[in-house]
Amino acid sequence: MRSFFKKSLSRQIILGVSLIHALLMTIFVGDFIIGRNIDLEDSFNKSSFEFAELIAKGSIHWVLSSDFIGIEEIIENANLEDTSFVEIIDAQGKVLGHTNRDLVGKFISDQESLTLLKKESKPFIQSQDKEGTLFVSPIKKGDQIIGWVRMKRENDILISRSNDLIRTGLLFTFMAIILGGFLSWFLVRGVTEDLLTIAKATTELKEGNNQKRVHLDREDELATLATNFNGLLDHLSEDQTEIQETKTKLALALEGSGLGVWDWDLTTNKVTYDKNWAKILGYEIDEIEMDIKTWESRVHPEDLPSYYEDINNYLEGKIDHYDNTHRLKHKDGSWIYTSGKGRFSAWDESGKPTRFTGTIL
After folding, report:
1. pTM above threshold 0.90
2. Which phi and psi angles does 327 have, rounded to 5°?
3. Pairing of strands 132-141, 144-153
4. CA 162, 167, 170: angle at the middle one, nearest 5?
């Protein structure tokens, strides 16, 4: 997977933009959902308290008169959505009305409820769990608490709305990520295509074609890069033309002077001779091998010691250039005197010579 993205700049950019977009959208949607859930819960609690207070106000007369029939009618009309039960109790904890009629006339027995009812004088939430929320509102006659309304609402509607919000948020997040990825692909496509155009031009340059030019229909940094690249190619083409002209002039000068050129690669021990070098010894260029033995095997035996000595002295740095006169065997079997001269022409990164170039005459 990593190599799949590393091989394409556009994939990397699209992935990066999509991930950042996903992170930002997740934070935004998450914050939105949390805020909306708080609003939903507040709205749920507010409507529940308002309904409980409405029941409390409507049951004042019936509680004072202990009219079970009137209280039962109020309970029956308490049809708020997702209500598990509604009960009306007097100040002593006696159940005057309940959704479950079997509990009417009984007293609430749990100590927690009794303590809270004696302590609180305004609407409050007595308990809240996965089964629902228990809302409590006092029944007042003036400033005197004469009873309580307790109403338990299931949390299903709250949970359902919250889940709807989460699903909608996830859907919007997914759609935003897809849209962001598509937009980033659309924006990146032009950049990567133009970069690929420049890359192809550099490949052709590497293969020897310096006539290729890059033309981009844009006015940004890539256009500047393309212009600079084309300028570099123009200079390179001019330099190569000058080099070629110089080589031609040098070849003509060498040919006219009768000098034979040799180039010794010290890393491979390969020696390249030009046609003048071969011509001096009576050969065509394709008749000689391109190695040091072609030269050494033709040196007169009496001249070999000084030949090797001068070469080794130069290679070891004892003299500043190679200069030796020795006899070489001609193709017709005769011996001819030649003067060999040369110097190092290339070095590696450590400064060690890698090429040894010179002439014979």
Report:
1. no
2. -95, 140
3. antiparallel
4. 125
CA-only gyration radius of the chain, Å = 50
Residues 6 or more apart whose Cβ sits within 8 Å of residue 162 = 33, 37, 40
What is the sign, positive or negative, of the torsion defined by CA atoms of 125, 127, 128, 134?
negative
Contacts 24+ apart (CB under 8 A), 155-159: 155/82, 155/130, 155/131, 156/82, 157/44, 157/81, 157/82, 158/40, 158/41, 158/44
Q: Which residues contact 252 (CB under 8 A, 6 or more apart)?
A: none
Please tell me the distance from the alpha carbon of residue 273 to that of residue 277, in angstroms, as a whole number.
6
pLDDT digits (tens, 9 = 90+) for 293-349: 999 999 999 999 999 999 999 999 999 999 999 999 999 999 999 999 999 999 999
pLDDT at 328: 95
**Nearest alpha-carbon partner for 226 in 196, 185, 206:** 196
Structure tokens at 339: 């003067």
